[in-house]
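Teaching assistant's notes for section 4

Start the section by putting this record on the projector. Ask students to predict, before seeing the second block, whether AraC family transcriptional regulator will look compact or extended. Collect guesses on the board.
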Amino acid sequence: MDLDGLRALLARHARPDATTAIDGVLVSQVEQSTPPSPSMSGTVMALIAQGAKRIALGDRVYEYRAGQYLIASVDMPITGQFTEASPERPAMGFGLVLHPATVAELLLQAAPGDLPPAGGGAPSGMAVNDAPAALVDAVIRLLSLLDQPRDIAVLAPLIKREILWRLITGEQGAVVRQLGLADSSLSHIARAVRWIRDHYAQSFRVEDLAQLSGMSLSAFYRNFQAVTAMSPIQFQKQIRLQEARLLLAMQSSDVSGVGHRVGYDSPSQFSREYRRQFGAPPSQDAARLRGSALRTAPALV
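Reveal the predicted structure now:
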């Protein structure tokens, strides 16, 4: 496994916003360990070439380090931190955004017997595994295209499909495969997750979300917890608090107004839950964050 070659490419092409000239490909380089920071995971595969990162999802904790990759098949509220990074030895990572349509296309093209048998129930929306040499090799070839811009349009889609195929047929393939199966338990839960994200300020009945997902109430609770490590109400609270933090950090100093905007009728409840989540009252936390560029790239890289 050529991690040295991967590190050289990541160091050469890392930018502050983590984006690259290849659509959906992200690279990062972090020169110091970071405190836990909340964000959304995105639907991505993230491969660490150097250093380590810890991700908390609900009551689950995932840690991945050099030579390992993490998959998030649902966009979920997480708390992440780089645990091994320094100017002399920065943490470096590669990310690839996962699209359900592309996964579905590959699944349709697979011959009978090419894919492992499907398991029952919804898998966790997040998984960690050691990266096989073939996957690292494909990532290196994809990143090498950044040194040959003329080849990106033609070759990048082919290599991205290869990487996705390695994931689909790998040890954590069930997590990725369900992303492209329209009738999978994960896709049904993802429908509910999108609804909560789009309507986070509204109250809802869990029974209505279960109906939206095409599941019984008990099956919905069980599968939602399996995928997100949270109940639907806990998930909504995480989204509300993250949206409030973004609003406060970007511009607003009206704490009560922001709390009401994200769905809190009680200013005291908003302040109490905000402080519990972020370690400081809303106004104090916002003052610290203003002037700092908020990261918009998926947070797993």
